[in-house]
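Figure 2 data, in text form.
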Amino acid sequence: MSTNNSNGYWGPPTSSVDWCEDNYAISYYVAEFFNSFSSFAMILLGEAACYSINRLQASMEQSYAKNTATGTTTTGTTTTAIKPPSLFRFKLAFRTITVVGIGSFLFHATLLHHMQMLDELPMLYAVLVLFFCLIESRFGPQPAWFPKLLTLHGTLVTGLVAFTKGNFQFFCFHATFGSLEVITLGLIFWVYRARRTEYPDIKRTYELGMGLYALAVAVWMTDLNFCEKYLLAWAPESIRLWMHQHVFASASSSSDNMEQWIVKDLYLHAWWHTFVSMGLYLLSTVIMLDGLIVQGWKPKIEMRGGGWLPVVTVVGTIEDASSKKNH
């Protein structure tokens, strides 16, 4: 937690948690500068995914309409033998990531309780949407009461989290959100185990996404629990001695005293935003890939954005791919 109680434009913090970064150290108008602007990673990735999903939906529908009019079922590598599914649920999942990013920016910029709710509650809604997508894919279409049950759960947790404060609020949110998060990650792992052999894209995307997500959690925990710890506190004595002899001894007097650097100086919560955005984007992509496969389509990953952004495309139906192999 931050030990800096400086007040800026938004006044004293009213949130249940004040993160490690010093308050108003960069700007009088932004409480946690780096934590705030790193939240844009979620916004950018969430909107990039929504844009690619819109393009995919339009492309599938146009191909279907064209081939239906001509009486054919296949054009090139794109098969339209089955009606394109609605991709709304996947778009909603990625859009909630965008909303989390907006709420995160507002929370870290102000450290106000009601802005904290705009950060934490969309996180809950995001994992509820992802959980619903996974249940539908893994166990088939659910009865009408299932989404209503999830909505009720979200409503009850919203009330519990929004109208409590302090450490109890912090615990309530992470207990309710964290438990559903673990279940959802377990379902994504189930997808990985079932699909990794036949679909290398799912294997690669899951492994990279899970690695980034795990790194993000480790970074988050370090920032939360070891804010004031010296960076060399965990290093073996031999490493500390080498650093003293070869690094700190040669540092110029005008440079920062690296020997006194603490965990706070690494801005780890900002890195958490970056890593968790990438990890969540990739794991959500795995869910979308699996959902399309279940509905009879053969998806693949294409790298766009200069080779940095993996997006989902469709190359045909599974039935069509099987018939081509048989010929």
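Caption note: DSSP finds ten helices and four strands in the chain.
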